[in-house]
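Researcher: Can you fold this with fe (ii) ion in place?
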Amino acid sequence: MIYITGDTHAMIDWEKLNTREFPEQKDLTRDDYVIVLGDFGGVWDGDKQDRHILKTYAQRNFTTLFIDGNHENHDLLDKYPVEEWNGGKIHRISDNVIHLMRGQVFTIEGMKIFAMGGAESTDREYRREGESWWAREMPSQEEYAEAVRNLEKCGGRVDLMITHCAPEATVLSLNMHGVYSRSKNELTSFFDTLAQTINYNHWFFGHYHNDSDCGKYSLVYDRILKVEKRF
Ligand SMILES: [Fe+2]
């Protein structure tokens, strides 16, 4: 089974994964997945906090998959060795925590899933480079090119799109533009193009700290959604 939830921000927003909030996990195994849509925050200080977080995730029945958000320590993430997993590239953070790298298409539970983390921080002015903000929050040109290549390889057809930020048009239609007035950037424009050219059943994203649905798009934050093949 696959479940999807939104930003966990290290320990700040991870209560939703507790057994009380998410009782279904009692019946899950390591072959079941919970996908965090970015701002996972479990690789942050490379020290005590990370060990505590990863130990807690290690005690969960399920395997946690996450795409990166803007609020990740991208320098630390980039230090993990790259592995192939279910058709795409990953960083294996621990036995049951996996970082799905940008622009990859994975086959999980028979579903083709395009994953692409990254987003532009709106709170950049309150953060320090290399301590709480990293330029790698936005994809590189190679990562955009790899995304296009991987989508071409599967004929431009996937079941799910999972990203941290959303296509610009979706940000507008979900009426988040008041809060995210600076949302338009290279990545949201790239996602606009994908939204128009890729054949997909559903698109899940996080980043905007709200729960809302609009047609094929779901913004996920506090809720945990069970993903069905025909969503
Ligand atoms: Fe966030």
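Model: Folded with fe (ii) ion in place. The pocket of fe (ii) ion is lined by residues 7, 9, 39, 69, 71, 207, 209 (CB under 6 Å).
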